[in-house]
Amino acid sequence: MSTKDYVLSNDVPFSEVDCSEAFAALNDAEKKYAHHLSQAAWDGELIILLQTSPESPALFELFYNIFSEHSLSDFKEEALKHVSNDDYSAFLVYAATFLWNSGNYKGFGDTKFLPNLPIEKFEAIIKSSPKYRLQPVHIDTLWNACKNYVYSLTEREKSLGFSESGITTYFSSNCTEEDGKLITDFLKENRMDGYNCRTFKTVNADGKPVYEIRLASVDSGFDASFMLGEKDFRNSKVVVTRGDYSPILAQVCKHLEAAKEFAANSNEKNMLEKYVSSFKTGKLEDHKDGSRFWIRDKGPVVETYIGFIENYRDPAGVRAEFEGFVAVVNKEMSKKYQVLVDSAETFLEKLPWDKNFEKDKFLKPDFTSLDVLTFGSSGVPSGINIPNYDEIRQDEGFKNVTLGNVVPAQLVSKKLVFLKAEDDELLNKNIVKAFEVVVALHELLGHGSGKLLMKNKDGSFNFDSSVINPLTNKPIDSWYNDGETYDTVFQKLSSPYEECRAESVALYLSLENEVMKIFNHEGADAETILYAVWLDMAYKGVKALEFYQPSTGLWMQSHAQARYVIARVLVEAGEGLFTVKETEAGENLLVSLDSSKIRTVGKKAMGNFLRKMQVYKSTADIAKAKEMFDGYSAVTNSGDYKWAAWRDIVMKFKQPRKVLVMSNTFIEGDKVVLKRYKPSAEGMIESYIDRFKNSSLHAKLIELAEKDEKHFKISS
């Protein structure tokens, strides 16, 4: 990628996530419950700044300071005395995009983004702000703390990753991939989950590495009831500490305690108590217990989940980013999802593996359509299947949600490159309907399917010894040992592999007429939606090349890698099912799907691929899974498909991702009111200024960043 590929364009699109109608339907207690939960989620989002890059906290505080206390119109008036309209727009777009991603690396893609104006103009705008005239020393201090990093683009700084090829704050900058593997092995050996920790490496006087595994918690100090003491491990010392993000988590706990006063039932109260306990102590088992109460809370009016949830951005695939969401259940939209849940066991039987590789009992989850009020994260998904804890998902259950007001905000009509005119028209017309089917199948029957074959602590197994591996026709000879999880075995492969499995399930089950009927598609309409589902997936697989980094050979986004792999599987199926052709040398492509072959060639190809994926996952066969998945993930120029060369063409047509603007809630008197914002850079910035106007965390955020800056010294 050239430098220009990292520069934000001024035409970044913005859209509003509108929840006003859903929020208005809540009673006063529900609004207060939602408000306090939202405060917890937004304050918790500050943790992501510390999880993204060393400079992100200072950059956040810089933007907050220069935009606060004065109106944006005053800010603009002063700025335009020194810079052009284009430069001013570029500054606002950069600030808004930074806030949306909770840092200066893309939440979807993990690559750095740069401002579309010269650094001297960027600085001129900062120093023209009314706030600078009032507090020049403070603003200069913040700017100097991040100035050298905003525009810097060394090879290492281009993306998130281990020190060999990227930036990460989940590990100190002297940690390599080998260090990551060592700590993952330590976690496995000591039956310790890594969701809520970071790792910092130092070297003691005798040259021996010392690894600090620091748990996220309000409390500091040692707690022998659940923490490991200092241990020797493979010629190193490992010590577990706690207290990461302490002041931020203290505020999160304060808001959760306030929300508890308005909880609708004992499950919600117990859930919040356990979350608070986990955040205070660093004990992940308490968060698991909170998640157990959460999955028992069926059909709540206000839905929420908060904690260290998704491991996409940890280069080792173990540690999780903080996130919190609050949403209102759309009861009418949720009805069709409940029908899908009720029919789930029938559809699971249609999947291309036998019952030995499926859960002993399908634990029917809550599956609701939500109108999102708050989503504190580095990006908002379209659907969610949580919790991610294997032992809960497999034996106790999970929840599925689709974010009903996010999907239309993300998907708007636009010219789709590389498609025939009729395919462009068909996708634009049917994409929301197709996406609704895919998200539902992906979350419920994708992430919700499949069994992990395990050896228990007492030496027994959760499967019959007579089970035959359908790929080898021999008895099962690999499984998850006690203390192992899917994430610890598959590590950095875990996210793209699982996303690919879920997307593949969605494709495969979209062939079922009864599935389409649930979403009110029958006959010719169902065939149109089916074509749109498959075409969109294959098309996104080609477009996914923009998330591949040739210099490192790494994929920077799990969903993108998953879709590229599926595109490769469909191409490999042959018989003209899915083709990509270069129509103008080095300039354009044509992506085509033969609708007449989806139910035959397509079904067979996806069935065979899915069977392998599931068997490898079920049996913990990381070697075979990696060999297959890496093969399909390769971006080469072999044969007729010049994927590596075509990536350059894809990059020429790269379009900026949409930024979503969300509302805020405020207490006025005894009422909670909702404030909406314009879908624009100005609206995004205003929403964040309002959100953190009365926060006590501004100075604390900088203190936390400064405390650990010694761990993140970057050399080119």
List keywords for this structure.
acetylation; four-stranded mixed β-sheet; 2 domains; Dipeptidyl peptidase 3; hydrolase; 716 residues; alpha+beta; globular; metalloexopeptidase activity
What does this 3D model show about the protein?
It is a single chain. The chain is α+β, with helices and mostly antiparallel strands and 716 residues long. The protein folds into 2 domains: 1-19 and 40-328 and 674-715, no CATH class; 332-368 and 414-653, no CATH class. Helices cover 47% and strands 14% of the residues. It is globular and about 75 Å long. It starts with 13 loop residues before the first strand and ends in an 8-residue tail after the last helix. The mean pLDDT is 95.
Summarize the topology.
Layout: E1 14-16, H1 20-24, H2 28-52, H3 56-67, H4 72-79, H5 85-101, H6 119-128, H7 130-134, H8 136-150, H9 177-189, E2 197-203, E3 209-216, E4 231-233, E5 236-244, H10 246-260, H11 266-281, H12 284-296, E6 302-310, E7 321-330, H13 331-342, H14 344-348, E8 366-376, E9 383-386, H15 390-395, E10 399-403, H16 407-410, H17 421-446, E11 468-469, E12 474-475, H18 486-490, H19 494-509, H20 513-518, H21 523-543, E13 548-549, E14 554-555, H22 558-573, E15 578-584, E16 588-593, H23 598-618, H24 622-633, H25 643-652, E17 659-661, E18 664-668, E19 671-675, H26 681-691, H27 698-708
Parallel strand pairs: 1-17, 3-5, 8-10
Antiparallel strand pairs: 2-3, 4-5, 6-7, 7-8, 9-10, 11-12, 13-14, 15-16, 18-19
Helix pairs in contact: 2-10, 3-8, 5-26, 10-11, 11-12, 17-19, 17-21, 19-22, 19-23, 21-22, 22-23
